UniProtKB/TrEMBL annotation:
Membership in a protein family: Belongs to the HARBI1 family.
Highest taxon listed in the record's lineage: Eukaryota
Protein name in UniProt: Putative nuclease harbi1
Cellular location(s): Nucleus
UniProt keyword Iron-sulfur present: no
Entry keyword set: Hydrolase, Metal-binding, Nuclease, Nucleus
Sequence ranges assigned to domain DDE Tnp4 in this UniProt record: 109-273
Single annotated GO MF: nuclease activity
Family annotation (InterPro entries): HARBI1-like, HARBI1_dom
Entry cofactors: a divalent metal cation
Pfam families according to UniProt: DDE_Tnp_4
Signal peptide: none
GO cellular component annotations of the record: nucleus
Length: 360
């Protein structure tokens, strides 16, 4: 974190974390409290290991981290803003269309397992498919690599299908409580399509949630759809990867209670959005994984070699609504039409890495 951003954040959290000196002890200053907390989040080290660089005993440091994280989430609550009106959702869609050539996309969704230490007496409650213990972080991001909706806390034992269905995002989506715009015509075309989120195979195919076609027996037209969908999906993948690379605590087993681990995760997400807006060139020096629009070649970021967060498992394609299948077919037809095709997209597809399983 650059000096200016640290000072700005310190000014906001100081009233919530400052302590009074006593006759027996001088209070740890707000700047030391904030610095120690950020060091804990960024380094991924344990409280025990941080007692030497911070000069604070582990038990005291644990309390400081909890109090400071709570303060950070409070003062930065405005940095995660879920669109509340149709116009706000349409504004998100405009940026996805302009930057990533996917019209009517109102967000890219992804989810990861964040490892935690097995809580005492919890049995297999947090036990996940990789035989570790976790809570699920699910987020929706916009075209600028910022979270616009976050849900964290579902226990790892729940199947990933169940974990998704328990999120506030999914409940509001299926209950039509997100104020998503009504279906509208696609650019240069009279085909009416709903506004959709872009996801991967870990999510169900819904009228307002598009996922790729299976690679088994895939056609060239389906590959084109997958290629176009991969562009907004990559934004979510980039965002989660940057988050993990900047806050290494998320890539380690968080040795705290589930409640405190959830607070840690939320703090990291809030800090991500805050620093993206303040000084992204300093915050994310490793860059982003991006596609060259002229060649389709992917340029990989510095963090691409780091271990990724544990992904959600792909869902079986069962009981897919016919209406959702039709929406996906409509997008497929559009992306393969004169109106919706990108110039040279078949060549870009080859360079992008798709097409190896195309049917001739």
């Amino acid at each position: 974190m650059d000096v200016a951003s640290f000072g700005y954040l310190l000014e906001m959290v100081t009233p919530l974390i400052v302590k009074q000196n006593t006759l027996l002890r001088e209070a740890i200053s707000p700047d030391r409290r904030l610095m120690a907390t950020l060091r804990y989040l960024v380094s991924g080290g344990t409280l025990e290991k941080l007692k030497f660089p911070t000069g604070i005993a582990p038990q005291t440091l644990g309390k400081i981290v909890e109090e400071t994280c709570d303060a950070i989430v409070q003062v930065l609550k405005g940095v995660i803003q879920t669109p509340a009106t149709e116009e706000e959702w349409k504004n998100v869609a405009v940026h996805f269309e302009r930057r990533w050539s996917f019209p009517h996309c109102i967000g890219a969704v992804d989810g990861k397992h964040i490892l935690i230490r097995k809580p005492l007496g919890s049995g297999s409650y947090y036990y996940n498919y990789q035989k570790s213990f976790s809570v699920v972080l699910m987020g929706v991001v916009d075209a600028n690599y910022e979270f616009i909706m976050v849900d964290v806390g579902t226990n790892g034992r729940v199947s990933d299908a169940g974990a998704i269905s328990k999120t506030e995002f999914y409940k509001r989506l299926v209950n039509k409580e997100l104020h998503i715009p009504e279906p509208d015509s696609l650019p240069s075309c009279d085909m009416t399509q709903p506004y959709v989120f872009a996801g991967d195979e870990a999510f169900p195919l819904l009228d307002n949630l598009m996922i790729p076609f299976s690679e088994d027996g895939i056609t060239k037209e389906q590959e084109i759809f997958n290629y176009r969908l991969a562009r907004p999906r990559r934004i979510a993948a980039n965002t989660f990867s940057v988050l993990a690379s900047r806050y290494r605590i998320l890539s380690q087993e968080i040795c705290l209670s589930p409640e405190k681990a959830i607070l840690i995760i939320l703090t990291c997400v809030h800090l991500h959005n805050f620093l993206r807006r303040k000084r992204d060139e300093f915050y994310n020096k490793g860059g982003y994984e991006v596609e060259n629009p002229n060649t389709g070649v992917i340029s990989y970021a510095d963090w691409a070699t780091e271990p990724p967060l544990l992904p959600l498992q792909p869902l079986p394609s069962l009981n897919v609504p016919e209406s959702a299948e039709q929406v996906r077919r409509n997008f497929l037809d559009y992306f393969n039409s004169v109106q919706g095709a990108e110039y040279g997209q078949y060549g870009l597809l080859k360079n992008h890495g798709f097409g190896k399983k195309m049917q001739k």
